[in-house]
Structures are given as C-alpha cells and as structure tokens.
Specification:
By secondary structure, this protein is an alpha/beta fold. The protein is built from eleven helices and eight strands. The termini are far apart.
Length: 377
C-alpha cells in the first residue's frame, strides 16, 4: 500500500508518475517520527484531561460468539470520549466527531506533524471532547456478527445498516470497508485529479499522505445497530456538558442533527465539515426543531472534481446542504454556509482539519461559534 513520499509541485508529481509507471509508488520513506512533530513554543496548560465512555449495554452471547470461554455477557455499543479542559475561564465545550473509515485521530496531530484542531480548540479556551464512533477504534465493535458468519450461524446480534460515508458502496453486505489510497482517498478527498497529481495550490500536505493512510480503520458501519447508538451517545454527552457545539465531518455530517432530534437540550450549535449529506428526508416538524439550533456548514475547494467512487461530487453535496440551509432559514433558524473558495481561500481538501491552513479554517469556525452558538446559550 505504498504512497508517494514527496510531492512539491504538480510538475514534479507528473514526472514521478512517468518514472514509476504511474502506479507503483515509493514507500513512506519520510514517515512521521517523534522528532518530526512540531511542538508549539507556548506550553499547553490544562485543568484536566482524561477519557470515558458514554452509553453501552450488556448483552448475553454464546461461546461461539465470544470465542473464549463459555456463554457469558459482554458490553457493546459504547462510545469512547477523550477530552482536554483548559485552565481559566472557558468557552462553550466542543465535541468532535470523525468520518468514515477514520477515528478521533482525524482531529489530533496532522499527518505532517502540525497542531490539530483538538489541541487548537483547547488553546482557544474550549473544553474539547473527541469521540470514536460506536463500532470504531477505541469504542470497539461487537464481534458476534462476524463470528456467527464465520461459523455459519444464522443469527446476528444487530440489524445492519447501509454505510453513509462519502462515495461508500451501498448496500455493502456484512463486511468492513475502507478507502483505498489511490481513489478512495486521493481523488475522493480531492488531493488531486488523479493519484500522484495534486491540485494547484493543494492545501493537504501530500508529502505526508502515507501517514493519513495509517489512520485508516476498517469501517464496520454495516454491523452497527439501527438506530446508530452513536447518535444517542452524542445527545447524552451534550446534555452532560450542559451545552456543547457538535462538530461533525463527512460520514458523521448529519449526526449532530440526528442527535438533536433525539434530545436537543444539550446541543448549543452544529458545525458540519464537508458532510457526506445534509439530509433531505427531514420532515417539516423536524426542520422546525433543528431551526432552533444555529448551524454552520463548511466546504473546501475543487468541489466539482470527480471522486472516482460515484457520480456524486462534493459540489452535489454542497448543493444539498444549501437546500437544507434554505429550509432551516424558512423555518426561522440560522444556517450559514462557508465555501472556502468563495472567500478566496483556495486548495482546501476534504480533510480541512489536516490541511496546511487548518488553523485558518479553525478560526473561521471559532469566530462563528463566538458570534452564533455562544449567543444561543
């Protein structure tokens, strides 16, 4: 699963494609090391840091589902949360939710070693909580369905749902999916029009793209119960925080809206970063409820480029979000759309929280939170 080690310009990328035949790329020769991480000069001072779980339920499983010991009980559907709380007077808490095939790592140190949004939002005075979706990363997954299928058993512990990630095949059946490097990531995430060729002025640090590949986690969304337990967990977490801004990305784009429809009391604001969808299926009654929560939607550049996974482009998704925002506004709510290219900010990819100008994008969100979400608290 080799990826390009260094791409300094479009011309050098194309030359390298010719040298290497356009397919077989060099391995990650410039892999991230501890020494390559850029440590800020100003110390990060915290009141608290830690982790915990939200939700979860105890279920009985057969020995063949556990594969170690006799029939027993296990806990499933829990959501892992990691947090940092800064010292001094704090602003609105923030909950960050990752996208398909990824984990909360998306918001931490960038692939090329810069500060991620997790730390930056804390430095800006926001207690910040980063989650791993139910069934992903440190939240774990329910292994029973896999073990049942491997053993030929017909029963399954949950009702599978189709994945909602950008361009993800659907329905996919019982397996785990992930994004391949050359299409699922490079073209679908809009690093460039084809693997090894970056868009002019591309903001994603393509020289470190192999580090992004290491962040990939097989996505078992097809085995997640319906409704997705992550939604209730997000709603409960926001209530526990006595009001929080939910920041979602890609697959999790509509999660804050869906969590708010479960219980809106804790949701002080919604920020959807390049959502895989702004659902058109909400009823007028649901829109009326969502209109009470200020919402920001953020998209990057090169949106009309073909993803390589489906005919749906990111421009199509932005258009769907504009239609959603129009419904929110018609219901008396506040819904703002930021398309960075329309502000003269060029080259942003699908991974805005990891792009080279990720702090600039974060500041746009932080300013909106000060202007909109804080006012609603």
């Amino acid at each position: 699963m080799g990826l390009i080690a260094s791409l300094s310009s479009r011309a050098s990328a194309m030359a390298l494609c010719l040298i290497l035949g356009g397919l077989a790329f060099a391995g990650p020769t410039s892999a991230q090391t501890l020494k390559s991480i850029q440590t800020p000069a100003k110390p990060l001072v915290l009141k608290a840091r830690g982790s915990f779980f939200v939700g979860g339920r105890s279920v009985e499983q057969k020995a063949g589902e556990i594969l170690l010991g006799p029939d027993d009980s296990v806990t499933v559907d829990q959501m892992y949360v990691e947090y940092m709380v800064p010292t001094g007077k704090t602003k609105a808490p923030v909950v960050m939710i990752h996208g398909a095939g990824l984990s909360g790592k998306s918001y931490d140190t960038t692939p090329d070693g810069r500060m991620g949004w997790y730390e930056y939002f804390v430095r800006k005075g926001h207690p910040t909580y980063v989650v791993d979706q139910v069934g992903r990363a440190r939240s774990g997954f329910n292994q029973a369905a896999i073990n049942n299928r491997l053993s030929g058993a017909s029963s399954a512990p949950s009702t599978p749902v189709a994945p909602t990630g950008p361009g993800a095949p659907a329905p996919m059946g019982p397996g785990a999916f992930r994004f391949g490097d050359r299409v699922g990531v490079w073209t679908n995430f809009r690093f460039g029009p084809r693997f090894g060729e970056a868009f002019p002025g591309a903001q994603f640090p393509v020289e470190a793209v192999s580090e992004l590949s290491k962040q990939a986690i097989p996505d078992l969304t097809s085995q997640t119960p319906s409704p997705n337990p992550t939604l209730k967990a997000l709603s409960d977490l926001a209530i526990d925080l006595d009001g929080a801004v939910l920041i979602s990305h890609s697959q999790s784009g509509p999660f804050p809206m869906d969590a708010s429809l479960i219980d809106p009391r804790g949701v002080a604001g919604i920020v959807a970063v390049e959502p895989g969808a702004c659902r058109a299926s909400y009823t007028d009654e649901q829109i009326a409820k969502l209109a009470k929560i200020p919402t920001l939607v953020v998209f990057g550049d090169n949106l009309s480029a073909q993803t390589g996974l489906s005919s749906l482009t990111w421009q199509n998704r932005l258009d769907g979000c504009r239609a959603y925002a129009a419904r929110i506004k018609a219901a008396g709510g506040q819904a703002d759309i930021v398309a960075t290219a329309e502000r003269g900010i060029r080259g942003n990819s699908h991974m805005l929280m990891q792009d080279k100008n990720n702090i600039q994008i974060a500041d746009i969100i932080l300013q909106w939170m000060d202007d909109r979400a804080a006012r609603s608290r």
